[in-house]
Amino acid sequence: MTTITTVGYGDICPNNNGERVYAIVAMVVGGAFYGYIIGNISSIVSSVDSNRRAYNERMEIIHTYMKIRKFPPELKTKVCAPALLSDDSINLIRLALTSISGVNYSQSTSTRS
Q1: CB 3.0-4.6 Å disulfide test: which of 1, 5, 23, 106 passes with 30?
Q2: Is the pTM of this model over 0.90?
Q3: Burial 6-16 (b: 16+ CB within 10 A, else e)
């Protein structure tokens, strides 16, 4: 507990009740702050992981759709290339997602300017 709260190892000891209360409060505040920071870091990592999982699931749906519909290899490459975020590729992805889900992914849903 002393390491987590960073209040020291006893080289400077509280000598009276006021100092003891201060040391206890410092440990509680330090522990709470440590927990808060670890919780936030865990939340950020979890969010990134869930975004990555959602992206991978969508790409898997697109791959399956292209396989079932027997897309030409050149078109598969255009859709699934690592530099996916060109305007042409985004339009191809929108078209594929609209075909799969029936939801219209029109230009108005784009956040790009």
Answers
A1: 5
A2: no
A3: ebeeeeeeeee
Contact 91, 75 (CB under 8 A): no
What region does 105 belong to: left with phi over 0, alpha with psi -120 to 50, or beta? beta
Is residue 73 pLDDT above 80, yes or no? Answer: yes
What angle, 0 to 180 degrees and rounded to 10, lies between the N-to-C axes of helices 87-101 and 17-68? 80
Q: Where are the domains of the chain?
A: 1-69, 71-113
Residues 6+ apart with CB under 8 A from 106: 94
The CA-based angle 84-68-95, given to 5 degrees, is 40
In order of 3, 14, 29, 46, the CA distances from 22 in angstroms are: 17, 9, 10, 36
Out of 44-53, 54-63, 81-90, pick the least confident.
81-90
Token pair for 80: 């699934």
